[in-house]
Amino acid sequence: MCDAVVDGRNLVLMSEQQDLSTPTPSWDPKTLIVAGGRPAHTNDGPVNHPITFTSTYHSHGLAGAGDRVYARFSNPSWDPFEEVLGQLEQADYPALVFSSGMAAISAALTLVPEGGVLVLPKHSYNGSLGLSAELQAAGRFTVRPVDVANTDEVLSAMTGADVLWLESPTNPMLEVADLPALLAAAKAAGVLSIVDNTFATPLLQQPLTLGADLVVHSVTKYLSGHSDLILGAVVTSDEQLRSKLHGHRTLHGAIASPMDVFLALRGVRTLSVRIERSQANSQILAERLAEHSKVTSVRYPGLPSDPGHQRATEQMSGYGSVISFTVGATAADADKLIDELALITGATSLGGVETLAERRARHANEPDSVPDNLIRLSVGIEAVEDLWLDLHQALELI
Ligand SMILES: *Cc1c(COP(=O)(O)O)cnc(C)c1O
């Protein structure tokens, strides 16, 4: 046990001494997701990296012992995905994969100093809210909740704060934060900034280029894209921060399965075509939902009437593929709608090729300000008319 811990520390020190930075090819991100993280072009070489199932590596002798040592410290199956995600976010270093988005978030929250202050959007992902509340209750730090769409409120909450946590668009309320303004202000004030970029993905916005110190992802969602695995990641251009999080991953042990990372890399290859289709579908569905008499409100940044539309147009290269809408008047109306859907699946999660619908307030830990009859629709890549027919027939039955 003791030896493993010492080895873990040694490994972190060793990796600090290596030059981890990899030059990013000047390809368009749509090319990068396809061509990045490939083995060298050699005759008879495979076009995909193999999956390395091992718990340990040959390493013996003082001189020339390998760097990998043990598979909690590193795995060659993580490298290509970490490289591609790092390059997509325009980071100077490869990303670090974790066993889940929450494992990545949990590691990122260790960056809040003991007794410090964390500024956190009220409508963040409910796991981020739950974990922060738990850490606050344990006396680790203080949470300052903010309405992230209200830039003045966030700016004043930043006074005396240590870490600014941002999510944009937020899950599930789809509020859009003014990322350029908030990240520049955080930098000027010396407040560490962390952005959960799960909803947008690096194809639609790149927070590190706007001054964020760290990006976290639930790779479970769009990046992997097929609802078949749980995975997370952090990305940064700050070498010290990266080394700290790498050390945390090694010692706390929330590491990824090589199989899951292989599947995530396979999924990310098609990210741009998936997003292209799901966004086009979302725009059409949001417009039609907004016109329907049983639908009482719609949030989708692509609607010109949406409060986040202007900001999203300025800072994102697309509006994403999640729509939130309220239906009828009660939770029962929303539950009935989901029960009546035949093609669209009633399930939590988002970012897969298939369209999913969920009444978010069914989760006890969802903030009270999320309406009881709000449905979060994660729009997939099916034919849009089939999706609309399904929604339309179910709406008629409420
Ligand atoms: C799902 C989600 C997470 C948590 O990720 P897991 O992979 O489920 O642990 C974090 N942030 C956002 C915005 C999410 O949607």
From TrEMBL:
Keywords of this entry: Pyridoxal phosphate
InterPro entries membership: Cys/Met-Metab_PyrdxlP-dep_enz, PyrdxlP-dep_Trfase, PyrdxlP-dep_Trfase_major, PyrdxlP-dep_Trfase_small
Cofactor: pyridoxal 5'-phosphate
Domain of life of the organism encoding this protein: Bacteria
Keyword Oxidoreductase on entry: no
tRNA processing as UniProt keyword: no
Family: Belongs to the trans-sulfuration enzymes family.
The name this protein goes by in its record: Cystathionine gamma-synthase
